[in-house]
Amino acid sequence: MNKDDENIEKGFVSIFLTSFTTIFIAELGDKTQLATLMLSAESGKPMIVFLGSSFALLCSSIAGVLIGKWISTKISKEKFSLFTGILMTLVSVWIGYTIFNINY
After folding, report:
1. Spatial distance between the Cα atoms of 19 and 17, rounded to a whole number of angstroms
2. Would you give the end-to-end CA distance of the chain in angstroms?
3. Do both 50 and 91 map to the same domain?
4. How crowded is residue 36: how many other Cβ atoms within 10 Å of its Cβ?
5. 80 and 67, same domain (yes or no)
6. Contacts 24+ apart (CB under 8 A), 58-65
7. Would you say residue 74 has pLDDT above 90?
């Protein structure tokens, strides 16, 4: 194995583990997992629910990857990072404002 092959393998493993960990943690306890839990309990068919929910996550992930690839051809990484940072900040402020107004 030459140095280029090692760099490609390290890049693959790093990107794969980062993607897996990020999505796995983000999905824990969210409404998708709760809906899957409920559907499995109600239907009594956990394997069919697993297959259906896995296919749904696969399809939504494909859409995200394709849109991300398209965006990467239109916008530089720096501009995209700035835009997503601003967007996440605005969403956080909006959620905080909404919670503050509901509770007080």
Report:
1. 5
2. 63
3. yes
4. 19
5. yes
6. 61/23
7. yes
Instruction: Give how far Cα 67 sits from Cα of 3, 20, 57, 61, 62, Å.
Output: 32, 19, 15, 10, 8
pTM exceeds 0.70, yes or no: no
Encode burial over 67-82: b for 16+ CB neighbours within 10 A, e otherwise.
eeeeeeeeeeeeeeee
Q: Is the pLDDT of residue 94 over 70?
A: yes
Contact assessment for residue 65 and residue 74, using Cβ atoms and an 8 Å cutoff: no
Residues 78 and 93 in one domain: yes
Same domain, 54 and 33: no
Is 54 in the same domain as 98? yes
Structure tokens at 75: 């916008």
In which domain, by residue range, is 39 found? 1-44
How many structural domains comprise the chain?
Answer: 2
